[in-house]
Design a protein that fits this description.
- The complex is a heterodimer of chains A (about 525) and B (about 350).
- With about 525 residues, chain A is α/β, with parallel strands linked by helices.
- Chain A is built from 17 helices and 22 strands.
- In chain A, the strands form five sheets. A six-stranded mixed sheet of chain A has the order 6-9-10-3-11-12, with helices on both faces. Chain A has a six-stranded mixed sheet with strand order 18-19-20-15-21-22, with helices on both faces.
- In chain A, strand 9 (about 175-180), helix 6 (about 190-205) and strand 10 form a beta-alpha-beta unit.
- In chain A, helix 4 packs across helix 5, helix 5 runs parallel beside helix 6 and helix 8 packs across helix 17.
- The longest helix of chain A has 16 residues, at about 190-205.
- The two termini of chain A are about 50 Å apart.
- In chain A, about 50% of the residues are buried.
- Chain B is built from 14 helices and six strands.
- Chain B has a single domain, classed as ABC transporter involved in vitamin B12 uptake, BtuC, CATH 1.10.3470.
- Chain B has helices at about 10-25, 30-50, 55-80, 90-105, 110-135, 140-160, 170-175, 185-200, 205-215, 215-220, 225-250, 260-270, 285-305, 310-330; strands at about 165, 175-180, 180, 255, 335, 340.
- With about 350 residues, chain B is mainly alpha-helical.
- The model of chain B is unreliable at about 1-30 and about 330-350 (pLDDT under 50).
- Chain B is globular and about 60 Å long.
- Classes of the chains: A alpha/beta (about 525), B mainly alpha (about 350).
- At the A-B interface, helix 1, helix 10, helix 11 and helix 13 of A face helix 1, helix 9 and helix 10 of B.
């Protein structure tokens, strides 16, 4: 571990001091400031909401509190004592426990075994003291009023029940502050209710909860007070009762709010190119219907898990259980796999460039040509000279820095933004009629972002239907003629360019109608 | 998209690019270290053992590795695609038995050899390749299973007995020279050249690297991943069958006991030659170096009168070191046990 400044001890310790008190938290990654003098106060037995848009610094702050990330500078005390920052084990010992969406339970072990997993107290020289461990687990389950059979293997539990086991595990380790990071995103309504029952119960035992959720309805339902983060700063600390949805969205969105659409020229839209009706993927997308005109860019907004990515994937033939109808230029098409989708004129730029977009060990040229040549006779010799020409052409028109004349260089030698341009160019080479883009500028620097937007603007002229899914609302406002907002697998509203704003999108995306 | 480029600098770039393409096999050569060791070892044996660098010894060295060579080239395809074929030894033995039955049954030798090669391709492609590529089962489980299964068929079919196979043509194949070079060495060279060409100069070769490099991205780019894997295992099977044919030719008999350990040597040769265990990088040049490394080591130690077990010790050590180097190169954070050699690059958060 490198020697970073140790947090100075705050010598307050007054009777009414908050249980968890974080002050002046600064953290940067490279040249980017993730947190600037952020602060957070959580009182005894309080349910405290931590609210902010994507990239506002929430997850960084949570990582600092749980010891996973060392801040540049911070003053964090728990019950008056400084928190051992940068050490996840000691933060846990000090009483801060985190429960995330991905459970860290062992599916084959029972509820009781999972609750006491890894605890020294129940180890005996011959192994694990089963009776003692079950007893401890039952104590905790009783205390939280959880009706779970301690002998049931965790793999047979519902998602909410698994989360409760995680909470029970945290409590059994004497957690004083429980961080619930997006706990409801994979739960049904009833499951959310039962989870909230547990949270209320914790409150009665004097255990504080930090509740992180994008679903504002739930935030208003369960929290006592709120901290709003924006661009790495603490913007507001309020009692929940003093706020309403619109005020809260205004706080979250802040200065962006009135910043409306960007420089995209009003599109000359053609005839309906793509028509999707009653598209359903069980458990992911419910009855989605929409139309996209030739030359139109439509956006899909929504929280993570709202079904945006799955919608694009389903259109591209990646979900075997998808049902519905898709019409392209009035003719029925149905993509059963990516190869067929490509031949039908569809292209997908996936969200995860490194995992799904590129073949990292291969060269720039090979990555560029892969889709275009997917139907060539396989024993043919790739025409290297023509490929080199084509690469130089693409590189020139898309301004891919560092790729001219270097087709044989590994794709990994390009920067993120230029890699993304190659992924885009790979599909433009097949001249698609429908372009599906999932997070088109994720991990791309600001300059390259604008260039990608301009490329998409120019693409309209060729008349494809362009569908963009993004978690960055300003991006959608910049690009799209219309924005569909999704919530839990459904399109809840369609906003025309002039009606769309960050606050309107945030309003619908968080489950308000 | 196709517009004629009109400035001169593009021409330069093109030449550079073509040059870099042909140089690529050499420059990103992960086998360079092993190649240097091969050269050093070769020189060492040349200067210390007068009987090492003689035409007779080099001929026996090369003919001695010919079976391992063709099987390793086949294994290279499987490993480049991100898999492995554990059944090469059993396919080799089964092909030998098949060839023996056909020849003893009176079939013309040319047709018998052809059918044996087809048989190997069918065993590899339609069984291993089908289950791995089309059905999507684990390559380890499938080829481990078929290795046992094929070996069982070998023993049943041959009654666990070695059959003599008399064929002048096979004898020529094993023991005659062409232009002063043993025919089995010509076969090695031929297999190498074709494999190199297919991997570097065809769309299929690109598919193999793409599937091994990132199967998801390849599928999303419209590549038929299942079909590619099927053909890869067919090639591995066919080259194992070629190994079986060479084996029968050399011994003059079809034995059910052959090829039981060749899978280890072939895998070692491919890995020593720098092909990634994860697939997607490496190639047959490295494999050729790997096989020659094993061959020179074994031959040199034998000529020096050193116990042959030392060969195992050195091979094993080199293998682990080669894989260690590859792993360390691919890692951002290098830690061996508790010792961290370089600080991790922290991931960006938001």
């Amino acid at each position: 571990m490198s020697a970073d400044p140790t947090p100075s001890v705050s010598a307050e310790g007054a009777a009414q001091a908050p249980l968890l008190h974080a002050l002046d938290v600064n953290k940067h990654y490279g040249g980017v400031k993730a947190l600037t003098e952020a602060s957070l106060e959580v009182g005894h037995g309080e349910v405290h909401g931590l609210i902010g848009e994507n990239g506002s610094g929430k997850s960084t702050l949570l990582k600092i509190l749980s010891g996973q990330t060392l801040p540049d500078e911070a003053n964090v005390t728990l019950d008056g004592k400084p928190l051992p920052l940068g050490n996840p084990v000691r933060c846990l010992d000090a009483g801060i426990a985190t429960v995330t969406q991905e459970t860290t339970l062992v599916p084959e072990l029972s509820v009781a075994e999972n609750i006491v997993l890894g605890r020294r107290a129940i180890r005996r020289w011959w192994g694990v003291d089963r009776r003692a461990s079950r007893q401890r687990a039952v104590e905790v389950l009783d205390r939280l009023d959880l009706r779970l059979n301690p002998r049931t293997p965790v793999k047979r539990l519902r998602p909410d029940e698994r989360q409760m086991v995680e909470i029970a595990r945290a409590i059994s380790m004497d957690a004083r502050v429980l961080i619930l990071d997006e706990p409801t995103s994979s739960l049904t309504d009833e499951e959310v209710d039962s989870l909230f029952g547990v949270v209320t119960n914790l409150k009665a035992h004097g255990i504080s909860t930090i509740f992180v959720s994008h679903r504002l309805k739930e935030v208003f339902h369960i929290t006592d007070s709120l901290t709003v983060l924006r661009d790495g700063r603490t913007i507001a600390k309020e009692a929940t009762a003093d706020l309403d949805v619109d005020k809260l969205i205004a706080l979250m969105v802040g200065r962006h709010m009135e910043q409306k659409t960007g420089g995209a020229p009003p599109a000359k839209l053609g005839k309906t190119r793509l028509s999707v009706s009653k598209l359903t993927v069980p458990g992911m997308i419910e009855d989605v219907s929409f139309e996209v005109a030739s030359g139109e860019i439509v956006g899909f907004a929504g929280l993570i898990g709202a079904g945006r990515s799955e919608l694009l994937q389903a259109i591209f033939g990646l979900h075997a259980s998808a049902e519905g109808t898709i019409e392209l230029d009035g003719a029925n098409v149905w993509n059963r796999n990516p190869h067929q989708a490509m031949n039908n004129g569809f292209a997908l730029v996936p969200a995860d460039r490194k995992e799904e977009g590129l073949i990292l060990p291969m060269s720039i040229r090979e990555n560029l040509m892969i889709a275009r040549t997917a139907d060539s006779f396989r024993l043919r010799r790739p025409p290297l000279r023509r490929e080199a020409e084509e690469l130089d052409q693409v590189v020139g028109s898309l301004r891919v820095a560092g790729a001219k004349g270097r087709g044989g260089a590994p794709i990994a030698s390009l920067s993120g933004g230029n890699q993304q341009k190659i992924v885009l160019a790979k599909w433009l080479a097949v001249d698609p009629k429908v372009i599906l883009l999932d997070e088109p500028t994720r991990g791309v620097d600001v300059g390259a972002k604008d260039e990608i937007y301009e490329i998409l603007d120019r693409l309209r002229e060729g008349g494809p239907a362009i569908l963009v899914s993004s978690s960055e609302t300003p991006e959608l406002l910049r690009l799209c003629d219309r924005i569909f907002v999704m919530f839990r697998g459904r399109i809840v509203t369609a906003l025309a360019k002039d009606d769309a704003s960050e606050s309107a999108i945030a309003h619908y995306a968080t489950g308000n109608n | 998209m196709v517009k004629q480029d009109d400035n001169g600098s593009a021409g330069d770039g093109r030449t550079r690019q073509l040059a870099s393409n042909s140089l690529r096999t050499l420059t990103d050569a992960s086998f360079l270290g092993v190649f240097l060791m091969l050269v050093v070892m070769f020189l060492y044996f040349t200067f210390t053992q007068s009987s090492f660098l003689t035409s007779g010894n080099i001929t026996s060295l090369l003919t001695g590795v010919s079976i391992l060579f063709v099987v390793s080239i086949g294994m290279t395809f499987a490993m480049l695609s991100g898999g492995i074929d554990l059944s090469v030894g059993s396919v080799l033995a089964l092909s030998g038995i098949l060839l023996g039955k056909l020849v003893v049954g009176g079939m013309p030798i040319g047709l018998a050899i052809f059918l044996t090669l087809v048989g190997g391709a069918v065993l590899g492609g339609l069984i291993n390749g089908f289950f791995v590529g089309i059905v999507g089962l684990s390559f380890l489980v499938v080829t481990l299973g078929t290795n046992i299964l094929f070996r069982g068929v070998v023993n049943l079919w041959s009654n666990s007995k070695t059959t003599q196979v008399i064929s002048p043509f096979l004898e020529t194949l094993a023991f005659e020279n062409l232009l002063g070079v043993p025919i089995s060495v010509w076969i090695m060279i031929g297999v190498f050249v074709v494999a190199f060409y297919v991997l570097r100069n065809t769309y299929f070769g690109r598919d193999v690297y793409a599937v091994g490099g990132n199967a998801d991205a390849a599928r999303l780019s419209g590549i038929n991943v299942g079909r590619t894997i099927l053909f890869v295992y067919a090639i591995t099977g066919m080259l194992s069958a070629l190994g079986g044919i060479l084996q029968v030719a050399r011994v003059g008999a079809a034995s059910p006991l052959v090829g039981e350990t060749i899978v280890f040597d072939a895998t070692a040769a491919v890995l020593i030659g720098g092909t990634s265990f994860k697939g997607g990088s490496g190639g047959v040049v490295g494999t050729a170096v790997g096989v020659l490394f094993l061959g020179v080591l074994q031959n040199g130690l034998a000529v020096s009168g050193v116990q042959s077990f030392w060969q195992q010790v050195v091979t094993g050590a080199i293998l682990v070191i080669a894989v260690l180097i590859e792993t360390l190169r691919g890692r951002e954070q290098v830690s061996i046990g508790r010792f961290r050699l370089r600080r991790p690059a922290r991931a960006r958060g938001g």
